[in-house]
Amino acid sequence: MVTKAVKLTFDALIVAVFAYAAIEATSFTPGGRWLPLFVAIAGVILAVVNIVLDGIGAVRGARANGAAAQADRERNQEFETDVRSALYWLAWLVGYVVLVIVFGALIASPVWLGLFLRTQAKVGWLATLASVVGTVAVLYLFSRYLPFVLPPGIFE
What ranges do the domains of the chain cover? Predict the structure, then answer.
């Protein structure tokens, strides 16, 4: 039961963070607000969907109460692994943010994507190169022809 409460609390926290990000994004300059606003809105929607799905799962789990005690014990054992895994992926996201702050989005995005695809997704060199080149092309075209401002870095 502790695991369900922690999941619900975490999901609610994620909704709050993305909602705050959406509110903050509305104060950005017109050229720089759209990407953060879209990401924040998508984050709110996905977090709310996750809460609903967790609620449906809790209701279904309560119906099958016979094996629920054993399943709860197994989930509690897996919880520590889940926390470590979540912190690991959070470190990847924080690394991306640090790269953007230091080098800017146009440099940070392909570097992070290349590292991620090679080390985590185990994608081959050709697919990684194609993804990185495609990312740079899309970012460049968006910043060149649309009112889309990429965040500059400290060294840019």
Answer: 1-63, 86-156
